[in-house]
């Protein structure tokens, strides 16, 4: 598998992509993942209507640091005209590319006809993608699932619509919308998408290890692999994949334990970035709690320490807890 690949004219240094994950892939975590070698990072999914109405929280989600580049902002919505307006705002903010979410299974998204619900309406998909592509000069990508339900697998049709609309890359999650994150992932459907379009295809779903990364890429022949849950609290996963791409044995890398110094330095750096980005100590602490659950998974006394993390209220308490835990068990 070659390292570099392209989306339109944008060259990416490796084929390891951070998936968009609601509540996790904010600017601080994207910066952490880029530091560990993610070739491309996606934002959390962002509301096109929130942008159109200049919602304060939504507009803050459009802020990013140059360290994140290249970064792909993911937009969701179901109204072509509003999606086009929001896309122009995204382009003016300086993002290298723009992704359209057509796969999110969350009921709060699908009940409004957005995200994965769009897979039931290919004509609307065409209208949205054409409106967005025509409104911006930056590359437009799309993220889908293989279909809405087991009886409605239409990823090949959607991929061809996307390519004809001018989309420059497509990410395909190997599950249906109804399936959510449960059950076996359908890599055959991802492979079929790769065979039916000429634009880059990013395989997503079922990657929990370095070995899985190579398995899905080799099976589907995808240009890149997108990783989500496996990197929550484990951003060094990107560096491990990069080492495997350089020839190290995946199974050995999967057994490699993170160095405690790397673990805690990453946590402290991440918390500093949260404080900087949110500008609100309480909010930064709240946002950091869920990441710490991931960082401490499998570590000594992890259940007890995660319970204590949930009770932390400010920066001082957070740092005291972290240092005590580090000094006691590491």
How would you characterize this protein structure?
- This protein is α/β, with parallel strands linked by helices and 330 residues long.
- It folds into two domains: 5-254, TIM Barrel, CATH 3.20.20; 260-329, Non-ribosomal Peptide Synthetase Peptidyl Carrier Protein, Chain A (Orthogonal Bundle), CATH 1.10.1200.
- It is built from 15 helices and eleven strands.
- The protein has helices at 27-35, 48-52, 56-60, 80-92, 107-110, 122-135, 155-165, 187-196, 210-220, 237-245, 250-254, 260-278, 281-295, 302-309, 315-329, and strands at residues 5-7, 10-12, 16-18, 40-47, 71-76, 97-102, 140-149, 152-153, 169-176, 201-204, 224-227.
- The strands form two sheets. The chain has an eight-stranded parallel barrel, surrounded by seven helices. It has a two-stranded antiparallel ribbon with strand order 1-2.
- A hairpin with a 2-residue loop joins strand 1 and strand 2.
- Helix 6 (122-135) packs parallel to helix 7 (155-165).
- It is globular, with a radius of gyration of 20 Å.
- The two termini are 37 Å apart.
Cα-to-Cα separation, first versus last residue: 37 Å
Secondary structural class: alpha/beta
Percentage of residues in DSSP E strands = 15-25%
The CATH architecture of the largest domain comes to Alpha-Beta Barrel
**Sequence stretches where pLDDT stays below 50 over 5 or more residues:** none
Q: DSSP helix count?
A: 15
Order of helices and strands: EEEHEHHEHEHHEEHEHEHEHHHHHH
Number of domains: 2
**How do the strands line up in the largest sheet?**
3-4-5-6-7-9-10-11
Q: How many β-strand runs?
A: 11
**What top-tier CATH class of the largest domain fits best?**
Alpha Beta
Average residue pLDDT: 97
Estimate the global geometry from the Cα principal axes: globular
**Any idea what the CATH superfamily of the largest domain is called?**
Aldolase class I
Note the main sheet: 8 strands, parallel, barrel
CATH fold naming of the largest domain: TIM Barrel
Radius of gyration: 20 Å
- Estimated helix fraction: 40-55%
């Amino acid at each position: 598998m070659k390292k570099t690949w392209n989306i339109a004219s944008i060259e990416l240094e490796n084929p390891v992509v951070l998936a968009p994950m609601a509540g996790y892939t904010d600017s601080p975590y994207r910066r952490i993942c880029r530091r560990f070698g993610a070739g491309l990072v996606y934002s959390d999914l962002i509301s096109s209507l929130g942008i159109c109405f200049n919602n304060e929280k939504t507009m803050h989600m459009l802020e990013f640091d140059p360290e994140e580049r290249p970064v792909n902002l993911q937009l969701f919505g179901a109204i072509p005209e509003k999606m086009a307006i929001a896309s122009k705002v995204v382009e003016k903010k300086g993002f290298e590319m723009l992704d359209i979410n057509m796969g999110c299974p969350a009921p709060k998204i699908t009940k409004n006809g957005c995200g994965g619900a769009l897979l039931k309406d290919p004509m609307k998909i065409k209208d949205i993608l054409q409106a967005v592509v025509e409104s911006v000069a930056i590359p437009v990508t799309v993220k889908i699932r293989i279909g809405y339900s087991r009886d409605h697998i239409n990823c090949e049709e959607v991929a061809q619509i996307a390519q004809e609309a001018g989309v420059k890359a497509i990410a395909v999650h190997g599950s249906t919308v109804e399936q959510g994150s449960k059950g076996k992932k359908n890599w055959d459907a991802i492979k079929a998408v790769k065979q039916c379009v000429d634009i880059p295809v990013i395989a997503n779903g079922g990657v929990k290890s370095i070995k899985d990364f190579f398995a899905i890429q080799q099976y589907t022949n995808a240009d890149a692999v997108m990783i989500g849950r496996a990197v929550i609290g484990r951003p060094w996963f990107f560096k491990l994949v990069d080492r495997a791409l350089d020839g190290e044995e995946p199974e050995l890398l999967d057994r490699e334990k993170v160095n405690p110094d790397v673990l805690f330095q990453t946590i402290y750096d991440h918390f500093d970035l949260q404080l900087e980005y949110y500008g609100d100590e309480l909010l930064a602490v709240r946002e950091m709690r869920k990441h710490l659950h991931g960082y401490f998974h499998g570590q000594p006394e992890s259940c007890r320490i995660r319970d204590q993390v949930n009770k932390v209220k400010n920066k001082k308490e957070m740092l005291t807890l972290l240092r005590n835990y580090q000094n006691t068990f590491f």
